[in-house]
Amino acid sequence: MNNVTKMIIAKPANEVFEAFVDPEKIGNFWFSSSSERWESGKTIKLRYDEYNADGEIRVKEIVQDEKIAFEWDYGHVHLVTITFTPKDEMNTIVEVNEDGFADDKESIPLLVGNKEGWVYTLTCLKGYLEHGISTLRAALVH
């Protein structure tokens, strides 16, 4: 099964795309840090300082300003595809599709938590890119 989350960000697609792949920008809305610029074939180390957690993603495909696909593993390998579709010159639809959930009742809490995480991440992205707010990222309490 897969989980899809979409949000409109009031910025051009290239700016939204760069927020994900540029290690200088990602810390303003998602992870504390990224080991390097995201490119196809690279393994990227991601860090959450606030939660003392790190992990890795394997970047499968990058299409400049249009698409990012990566795999990560938290029990099962999941493929995440993020697409950036211009709605008009100043607005971009960001769609996150995470695939790899088992098709059973036990996966429902995982799907709900995953959806919550992506909605939160995209909300932080919106706050950062549209309003310059970079303090939302670490506000979620577990």
Task: Summarize the structure in words.
It is a single chain. With 142 residues, this protein is α+β, with helices and mostly antiparallel strands. It has helices spanning 13-21, 23-26, 108-131, and strands at residues 2-9, 33-34, 43-48, 53-63, 67-73, 77-88, 91-99. A seven-stranded antiparallel β-sheet has the order 1-7-6-5-4-3-2. A hairpin with a 3-residue loop joins β4 (53-63) and β5 (67-73). The longest helix has 24 residues, at 108-131. The protein is globular, with a radius of gyration of 14 Å. The model has no long low-confidence stretch (mean pLDDT 94).
Features:
142 residues; 7-stranded antiparallel beta sheet; ASHA1/2-like_C; globular; 39% strand; alpha+beta
Structure described in brief:
With 142 residues, the chain is an alpha+beta fold.
Beta-strand portion reads: 35-45%
User: What's the mean pLDDT score?
Assistant: 94
* Helix percent band: 25-40%
Provide the succession of SSEs.
EHHEEEEEEH
**Strand runs, count:** 7
Number of helices: 3
For the sheet with most strands, the description reads:
7 strands, antiparallel
Shape: globular
Strand numbers in spatial order across the main sheet = 1-7-6-5-4-3-2
N- to C-terminal separation?
Answer: 25 Å
Alpha-beta classification: alpha+beta
Rg, rounded, reads 14 Å
Residue stretches low in confidence (pLDDT < 50, at least 5 long) are none
InterPro entries: ASHA1/2-like_C, START-like_dom_sf
Organism: Paenibacillus violae
Family: Belongs to the AHA1 family.
Pfam family, one: AHSA1
